[in-house]
Known about the structure:
Layout: E1 14-19, E2 22-35, E3 40-48, E4 51-59, E5 63-71, H1 85-109, H2 116-126, E6 131-134, E7 137-140, E8 149-151, E9 160-162, H3 165-182
Antiparallel strand pairs: 1-2, 1-5, 2-3, 3-4, 6-7, 7-8, 8-9
Amino acid sequence: MADTQPSQDWCGMTVSFSLKADPSNPITAEVFTFDPESKTLVLIENKVGAHIASYRYVRVPAMDLSTVRLSGSANPPEPMPPLTPQIMKRIRDKEREAVDKERLRCNETIGSGIAHEIQVLFNGLAKTMQCKWKDKDIVVDYERGDGGVRISPPYTSDKVQGGHAELVTYVKKVLEGERVKLRI
């Protein structure tokens, strides 16, 4: 079936196709569903009896549509029942909670009024240590009982302070390594 466009009509069928980026490794799987809005085909992988082990998501633009082959019979999905107001409220509450959590995370990990290279320095430190911004200071291992280590502007090793000597030494070493790597 050359140049076939995926659709909900494919649900339950076995599809075989190649990806444009990897034409030598064809994919064969059962179609679980197709989302026309995002142009995403959802495939069932590793199905054992009635148990589905995993799904694979493939965006249609990544597919070589000229290689598509379908087999088996379609099994259109059951229509979804309408969402009740109670379910919608739970969904909105979970969404609001997730947005608030992400906003808090961003406030702690993205410095306000900080130069770009200092934010990059922070990101480098955060790869190996638990870091957050506290005003203009970087606070490392802040969940420790002693408050962790604080790095003040201009974010050099002589501005590293804290109650735990080994942690201060370690933070200084990582900080200097990041500054050398970033050439700042």
